[in-house]
Design goal:
Helix content is 16%, strand content 36%. With 113 residues, the chain is an alpha+beta fold. This is Transcriptional coactivator p15 (PC4) C-terminal domain-containing protein.
Length: 113
């Protein structure tokens, strides 16, 4: 059996490129000011959840998962006219949210140093 040279053993995919059929990320829109606005969920479902827009497509929502209410801070994207949640984000339980609010002033002071 002949030996295969390293040059011939090239992989057909790059390790960091991901799948080729992935959609390109949505274009970023600049937004003036740091306004936080609240509106009803416009994602097309009838859940009636309230959404707060932090910046661009970054939103805060209250979701229910397995019977527990969660604070969902997440980047969203638009596909076929619908705003959908992306992979980048975090869901916090009520106790985690309260803990975050409790340390928020300390974090702000540390950032301003």
């Amino acid at each position: 059996m002949p030996k295969i040279k390293k040059a011939e053993r090239k992989s057909s995919s790059d390790s960091d490129s991901g799948p080729d059929d992935r959609n390109p990320p949505p274009s970023k829109k600049s937004k003036e000011g740091a306004d936080v606005k609240s509106n009803k969920n416009d994602s097309g479902d009838d859940s009636g959840t309230t959404t707060w827009t932090l910046e661009g497509m970054r939103q805060v929502r209250i979701n229910e998962f397995r019977g527990r209410k969660m604070v969902d801070i997440r980047e969203h994207y638009e596909k076929e006219g619908k705003v959908l949640p992306g992979k980048k984000g975090i869901s916090l339980t009520l106790s985690q949210w309260k803990k975050l609010l409790a340390v928020a002033d300390d974090v702000t002071r540390a950032l301003e140093k």
